[in-house]
Amino acid sequence: MSQWRVFITRRLPDDILAPLFEHADVDVWPERLPPPYDELRRRTAAADGLLCMLTDRIDASLIAQAPRLRVISQMAVGYDNIDVAAATARGIPVGHTPGVLTESTADLAFALILAAARRLLDGVRFIERGAWQTWEPFGLLGQDVHGKTLGIVGLGRIGAATARRAHGFGMRILYTGPREKPDVAAALGATYVSFERLLAESDVVSIHCPLTPATRHLFNADAFARMKPGAILVNTARGGIVDHDALLAALRAGHLGAAGLDVTEPEPLPSDHPLMQCERVIITPHIGSATVQTRRRMAQMAVANLLAGLRGERLPHCANPEVFEKR
């Protein structure tokens, strides 16, 4: 008889789940869309372990009605969908998957920078609607990326990896955040500046900070007004950092040149949302880590965190390591 019960909120490759099948009674949500909240609560109620995704709301109420729950393991680096304080109060460790998606997400951030600057999607649409009749000397003009100034909001792992890519384009690199990171910045040739100065001097602003109460709608109407005319905004962090109404207004007014968004709030955006119709916006469906290699490694890390928590061991990657100090 299996020792533990586990609920997994999305289908994952069987070979990655094999270690769990050996030791637990595993319940895998079979649908393409996430489990509805009531179903999530029901299936978690009797679980010893929960392997969840960023699309799942793991709040205090859900945690309270799961008396057997020993570990929550999220297949993502961020965990703003989880009430970590409630989990900590119960002594439940929360696992996540940092580091592994750094390079893949930085690749996508720079892809969005290039696509927005060079109007890549406009060119595709131009062909699709049959408008391409000849080469035009001043048609579909974009902006150079090489030699421009890149402003990075949050010089963590992904922000630093994006800065390394910018070096290949000869970009000047500014960064901002709650504190300076002199060692990292020196290796990247990056300069620490205030948020206001970064907005004023950057041709491209790339967001890499976590979503917290302090960063929610950090990019609002005031922030967009401070940005350089024609600047490009790229967000591969969390959708809630950007006020979408304010972004749309800045684009429609012609103050911002373009935006590349891999994250939105909500996800997905409704198909009739004005940002979906804006020609100067490129929206991708949260695919920053979506490579075969990265997603498999994320799943493996999530399983390893889950197994460690079930066994009462310290999680390899834990968002609330203080729970182990109480034991």
* Rg calc: 22 Å
**Between the first and last Cα atoms, what is the distance in angstroms?**
28 Å
Query: Residue share in helices?
Result: 25-40%
At CATH level 2, the architecture of the largest domain is: 3-Layer(aba) Sandwich
Organism: Ardenticatena maritima
Family: Belongs to the D-isomer specific 2-hydroxyacid dehydrogenase family. GhrB subfamily.
Catalytic activity: (R)-glycerate + NADP(+) = 3-hydroxypyruvate + NADPH + H(+); (R)-glycerate + NAD(+) = 3-hydroxypyruvate + NADH + H(+); glycolate + NADP(+) = glyoxylate + NADPH + H(+)
InterPro entries: D-isomer_2-hydroxyacid_DH, D-isomer_2_OHA_DH_cat_dom, D-isomer_DH_CS, D-isomer_DH_NAD-bd, NAD(P)-bd_dom_sf
Can you give a write-up of this model?
By secondary structure, the protein is α/β, with parallel strands linked by helices. The chain folds into two domains: 4-100 and 292-324, 3-Layer(aba) Sandwich (Rossmann fold), CATH 3.40.50.720; 102-283, NAD(P)-binding Rossmann-like Domain (Rossmann fold, 3-Layer(aba) Sandwich). Helix content is 36%, strand content 16%. The strands form two sheets. The chain has a seven-stranded parallel sheet, sandwiched between helices. The longest helix is centred in the C-terminal third of the chain and has 19 residues, at 292-310. Keywords: Oxidoreductase.
